[in-house]
Design brief:
The chain is of the alpha+beta class. The strands form 5 sheets. A 5-stranded mixed beta sheet has the order 2-1-5-3-4. Strands 9-10-15-11-12 form a 5-stranded antiparallel beta sheet. Helix 2 packs across helix 3 and helix 15 packs antiparallel against helix 16.
């Protein structure tokens, strides 16, 4: 049984483990305003708002793709759809602005755009200033308008803050947050009652016990990748263990050397930390999927997925990240470099989970650059990603790390190219040798995102860009604003 609120009304539903929020809305609850476009979390037509109550009972909303969100994750949350925004004939400012600015064309994607605007509006309320361009792009970057009417949509995003704040009555219900907390506290998908199907453990101990009982069950957090097996490959996901509510996996622990980041921490939660301490990593987040995906996806999931084209693993390899794994026998730590074995294969045992990822601080004098090559600037999968870190000590390179995604069966460092650069003064000839060494470090594959020849040339060119950065200390070398 899933117990949650939909547009201010209590709902109690039953669903199979692999039922999505979109399926629940359209097929069981009769809410067809939310549309299915790509069924892969790319187009944003299915965007909805998810409200969660904090410790004070205040509800905070974030946007999510309903097509790839498990319905069971609605437990104890407030789901808001386009049907729930108007109060009688009075439209919510997000809706009214879309009408006033003629921002709806064919209309198919409009409900998802409205929901992204609603989330932006609610998160901006009380700040007494309109969002800047970066905030607008972030909020709307995951909504693709098929009629390419982006200018009036942007106009609507700005105009809605000037309109009267007509709000649905449920938004002024002071008890709604309290009721959500009560429902979340007595999660009905208790691991003791239902070790199969869909389980939502609350503690690491429960998670490990469930893992021991059901090693065949799939782990799910944000589902931003796993759910594509269901929507794109039409596979059944019959037994799932949801790690998103495990307290230990949602913690961020700061130490003198860096941060232990729980495996279920979302990218959105990570953004303030990265902005303050890892600017290159922070800039990568602007190109890492959409706001809807960053609200749901997790750092641990990107690593456990072991995709050779994941953006975070090569970045973390360049920063000497470590992992903490947990299982029935206790915990163990290892270098991230030792975690990946082969394509989609890792050292993780069937009864183990990733508990946390250690992100080191950038030591004084250490630099980092991350460059992503993809067909679209934003919300696209990498063809090649290069992540580089180093120090310059008395004009010589030290602690050189050159990590790549899209160049091998796993995210991987380039040890021979690193060895050539280590301890040397940067020069054109030196980097020519390092570029040649990449041919020994990698034998890339050909797929839909790029040929082996393209990838080899692109990786070598990223090393050339690194040399130009080192050689031009007074100017930034980049292709565009987010190419740091």
């Amino acid at each position: 049984m899933i117990e949650f609120y939909l547009n201010g009304q209590l709902q109690q539903c039953t669903a199979t483990a692999d039922t999505s929020v979109l399926e629940l809305l359209r097929q069981q609850l009769g809410k067809t305003g939310t549309k299915e476009g790509c069924a892969s979390g790319d187009c944003g037509a299915c965007s909805v708002a998810i409200g969660e109550a904090d410790t004070q009972g205040k509800i905070r909303y974030h946007s999510a793709n309903a097509c790839i969100m498990p319905a069971h994750q609605l437990q104890g949350r407030h789901l808001v759809t386009v049907e729930g925004l108007a109060q009688g004939s009075e439209l919510h400012p997000a809706q009214a602005a879309m009408v006033d600015c003629h921002a709806s064309q064919c209309g198919f994607c409009t409900p998802g755009i409205v929901m992204s605007l609603f989330t932006l509006h609610e998160n901006q309320r009380g700040k007494h200033f309109s969002p800047d361009r970066q905030q607008l792009e972030s909020a709307l970057g995951g909504n693709l308008c098929r009629c390419t009417g982006y200018r009036p949509i942007r106009d609507a995003a700005l105009a809605m803050f000037e309109l009267p704040e007509h709000r649905p009555s449920w938004m002024d219900d002071p008890e709604l947050g309290v009721r959500l907390k009560e429902i979340a506290a007595h999660d009905q998908n208790s691991p003791e009652d239902d070790p199969g199907s869909y389980a939502q453990p609350a503690t690491l101990r429960q998670l490990i016990e469930l893992r021991r009982q059901s090693p065949e069950a799939r782990l799910v957090a944000g589902a931003t990748d796993l759910w594509l097996e269901n929507t794109q490959q039409l596979k059944s996901l019959d037994s799932l263990i949801d790690v998103s509510r495990v307290a230990e996996l949602n913690a961020i622990e700061e130490t003198d050397e860096g941060w232990w980041i729980g495996a279920a921490v979302t990218y959105t939660r990570l953004e303030p930390l990265l902005e303050d301490h890892h600017p290159a990593f922070s800039h990568l987040m602007h190109r890492f999927a959409s706001r809807q995906v960053r609200n749901r996806g997790t750092l641990g999931g990107n690593i456990a997925n072991a995709s050779p084209i994941g953006d975070c693993p090569p970045t973390l390899l360049a920063l000497d990240a470590r992992l903490r794994l947990a299982g029935p026998q206790g915990e163990r730590e290892m270098s991230l470099e030792d975690f990946f074995l082969d394509y989609r294969q890792t050292v993780l045992q069937e009864d183990e989970v990733i508990r946390a990822i250690f992100l080191p601080r950038l030591a004084a004098g250490r630099e980092c650059k991350i460059w992503k090559l993809s067909k679209r600037r934003e919300d696209d999968i990498s063809s090649v990603l290069g992540a580089f870190s180093w120090r310059l000590d008395n004009g010589r390179l030290s602690q050189v790390r050159l990590a790549f995604g899209g160049m091998a069966a796993v995210p991987k460092r380039a040890p021979q190219a690193e060895a050539i650069l280590e301890g040397k003064e940067p020069s054109h000839e030196l980097f020519q040798r390092a570029r040649q060494a990449l041919k020994e470090d990698f034998q890339p594959m050909t797929d839909a995102r790029g040929s082996a020849e393209y990838r080899a040339i692109a990786a070598a060119n990223l090393l050339e860009r690194l040399y130009r950065v080192l050689d031009a200390t007074t100017e930034e070398v980049m292709l565009h604003a987010h190419a740091h």
